[in-house]
């Protein structure tokens, strides 16, 4: 079907043009223009092979905006009864044979559009129609949830009497039989209005690195079980790995996509070993030596191998992040309330919160959670002292403060909990008087700290300067001594 015979929405033309830019680098791709009916069903014009979503594909994630746009475009097109086909854009496929010798069509680009069209056909089939449906399997729970959500949304949006004709919906299918070219294309995707994130890319990178007899699908399910906790976890891991005097680096905090790909994909080593670096204690004299190995998982700053090693590393820290910051703690746990009420809210600084969470992740991965209450309190005192020192807390200010006092390095290089506590407790600072009086951020922060411990906040700035840190330290010591050690 010639291009002049297609009714092209500007949105899907943009998708097609974006695809075309990247597909130019694929040697000798097979390009065909076919009807959506031929792709969804098995007709004489169908491409040989079974459509399939590869393990490294991100979940189905189209939201209401994209669904509304698609249904609106379809409604407008079919109202006109045009003889020109509706153009849904380009679909990129990687065609290869599976272990049984059958042709498989991995969907590299087009999952979001194809899935939404399949949901629409499924809805119309329940109303008595008989549209063909692609036999696609979705592994991610997030995909299942979004499919259910968009099915319900389409029930509300479906125009009365919509006469959907898949014979009149056209797609351009671009097929490559080169796995490397398919992967490179996947990395560049920015279609459908939802760009692949850095986490999407590193997932695909490491699933692709898994060699038989290991199954990428198994590790894809492990990855997807993390839910939404990987994104904040990876950002904290960047802080922990970059903010060190041994090899100080900076990253684009507002858009860390390229830094995430570089650190957790491109810089990983092409080795199959699943290495975990842990503390070990050697006890005794020559000839009578015993070793105690830490039972923690992975070292935050350790070198990483591609494939299973990086996947397990990220899943370990994602689970640790959930336990430390997302799970509900006991109501009587003052350390938990400190985090929820002050770190998350009244301190009003995402930068300080990010450093605090990074420090606790690094601490728990190195020393475990037995002495977590003390670590929570003393790290809070040091990190959030910046709120008392400065009248305004900035992104650069937090990073410089971290590097000046080697906060993360001290956690990473201390041999035990006691050594780290000695350093944190020896830290001193001078409170800046500006902002203590009135109703600014600093004053609200101070009041929230006093309120947490059931104390009244001094009204005069000089009283706060002389009493704040002493009161804070006394309260910390009281709560630490009365809090039983516990691990989770």
From TrEMBL:
Domain DUF7834 residue range list: 218-434
Task: Provide the taxonomic classification.
Answer: Bacteria, Pseudomonadati, Pseudomonadota, Alphaproteobacteria, Acetobacterales
Among Pfam families, the record links this protein to: DUF7834, GmrSD_N
The record's section on InterPro entries has: DUF7834, GmrSD_N
Q: Which stretches make up the GmrSD restriction endonucleases N-terminal domain? A: 38-206
- The name this protein goes by in its record: DUF262 domain-containing protein
- Originating organism: Komagataeibacter nataicola
């Amino acid at each position: 079907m010639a291009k002049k015979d297609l009714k092209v929405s500007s949105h899907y033309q943009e998708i097609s043009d974006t695809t075309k830019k990247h597909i130019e680098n694929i040697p000798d791709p097979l390009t065909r223009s076919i009807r959506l009916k031929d792709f969804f069903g098995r007709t004489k014009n169908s491409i040989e092979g079974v459509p399939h979503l590869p393990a490294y594909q991100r979940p189905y994630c189209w939201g209401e905006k994209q669904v509304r746009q698609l249904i609106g475009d379809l409604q407008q097109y079919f109202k006109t009864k045009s003889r020109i086909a509706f153009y849904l854009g380009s679909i990129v496929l990687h065609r290869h044979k599976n272990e049984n010798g059958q042709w498989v069509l991995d969907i590299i680009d087009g999952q979001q559009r194809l899935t939404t069209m399949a949901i629409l056909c499924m809805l119309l089939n329940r109303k008595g129609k008989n549209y063909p449906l692609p036999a696609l399997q979705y592994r991610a729970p997030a995909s299942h949830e979004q499919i259910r959500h968009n099915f319900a949304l389409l029930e509300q949006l479906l125009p009365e009497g919509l006469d959907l004709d898949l014979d009149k919906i056209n797609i351009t299918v671009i097929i490559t039989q080169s796995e490397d070219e398919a992967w490179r294309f996947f990395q560049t995707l920015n279609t459908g209005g939802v760009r692949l994130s850095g986490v999407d890319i590193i997932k695909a990178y490491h699933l692709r690195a898994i060699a038989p007899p290991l199954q990428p699908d198994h590790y894809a399910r492990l990855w997807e079980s993390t839910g939404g906790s990987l994104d904040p976890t990876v950002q904290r891991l960047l802080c922990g790995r970059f903010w060190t005097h041994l090899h100080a680096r900076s990253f684009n905090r507002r858009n860390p996509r390229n830094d995430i790909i570089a650190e957790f994909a491109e810089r990983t080593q092409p080795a199959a070993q699943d290495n975990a670096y842990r503390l070990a204690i050697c006890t005794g004299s020559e000839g009578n030596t015993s070793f105690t190995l830490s039972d923690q998982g992975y070292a935050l700053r350790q070198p990483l191998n591609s494939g299973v090693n990086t996947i397990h590393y990220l899943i370990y820290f994602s689970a640790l992040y959930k336990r430390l910051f997302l799970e509900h703690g006991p109501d009587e746990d003052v350390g938990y309330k400190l985090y929820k009420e002050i770190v998350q809210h009244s301190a009003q600084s995402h930068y300080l919160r990010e450093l605090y969470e990074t420090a606790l992740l690094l601490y728990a991965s190195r020393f475990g959670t037995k002495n977590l209450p003390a670590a929570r309190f003393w790290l809070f005192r040091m990190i959030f002292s910046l709120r008392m020192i400065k009248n305004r807390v900035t992104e650069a200010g937090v990073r410089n403060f971290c590097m000046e006092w080697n906060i993360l390095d001290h956690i990473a290089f201390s041999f035990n909990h006691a050594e780290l506590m000695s350093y944190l407790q020896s830290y001193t600072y001078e409170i800046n008087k500006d902002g203590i009086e009135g109703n600014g951020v600093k004053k609200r922060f101070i009041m929230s700290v006093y309120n947490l411990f059931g104390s009244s906040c001094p009204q005069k700035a000089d009283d706060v300067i002389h009493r704040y840190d002493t009161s804070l330290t006394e309260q910390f010591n009281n709560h630490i001594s009365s809090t039983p050690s516990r691990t989770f």
